[in-house]
Design brief:
Layout lengths: L1 H22 L2 H5 L29 H11 L1 H4 L23 H6 L2 H10 L18 H13 L3
Helix pairs in contact: 3-7, 6-7
The structure holds heme C (HEC).
């Protein structure tokens, strides 16, 4: 009888240790970078925006100037969303330097979002720029946004 108890005890201990090791699985979660779970997904640009390509992909300097005038209030001087205004919006102003975001979106998506603003996705945080900036200027901004990728 005593034996049986001992075995049961030992088994219990083994199970406990095993459970403990289960917790050791955690570092896998922290691997980051490349885990599918933290992939960013965004919808396709709507209507005519879909499939558009940037006619001025090298206009980074022009885009930078426009960004400093029209975008830093919310996206911050570095474009990473770190600004007093941008962080209070819901959802907050996006970190445009984020590799995962940059890899998830096309130039057509960026042009669409600059043109239509938040309401493209039923958010109201971001101003639309299709009436205040020329098409060429919005593409210059796309070029600059692309240059922000970290
Ligand atoms: C009034 C604040 C505000 C201004 C000004 C603003 N944005 Fe935004 N922007 C936001 C917010 C908030 C979001 C996140 C919510 C959303 O996707 O609409 C966003 C999202 C974006 C996105 C989509 C990123 C994503 O996560 O899908 C792009 C691209 C972008 N902004 C570029 C710009 C550019 C370029 C300018 C300047 C021409 C600009 N924004 C000006 C607030 C702003």
């Amino acid at each position: 009888m005593k034996h049986v108890l001992m075995i049961a005890f030992a088994l219990g201990a083994v199970l406990l240790v095993a459970a403990g090791c289960g917790g050791g699985g955690k570092p896998a979660e922290n691997k980051g970078g490349g885990g599918d779970s933290d992939k960013i997904s965004r919808p396709e640009p709507a209507g005519d925006y879909k499939g558009k390509t940037n006619p001025t992909p090298d206009a980074v300097e022009e885009g930078k100037k426009l960004f400093e005038t029209h975008c830093v209030t919310c996206h911050g001087p570095n474009g990473d969303g770190d600004s007093p205004v941008g962080s209070t919006l819901k959802p907050p102003a996006s970190d445009l330097t984020d590799v995962k975001l940059q890899d998830a979106i096309g130039d057509d998506y960026i042009f669409w979002r600059i043109s239509e603003g938040g309401k493209a996705l039923n958010y109201d945080g971001m101003t639309p720029f299709k009436d205040s900036l020329k098409e060429e200027q919005r593409w210059q901004l796309v070029a600059y946004v692309r240059s922000l990728k970290k």
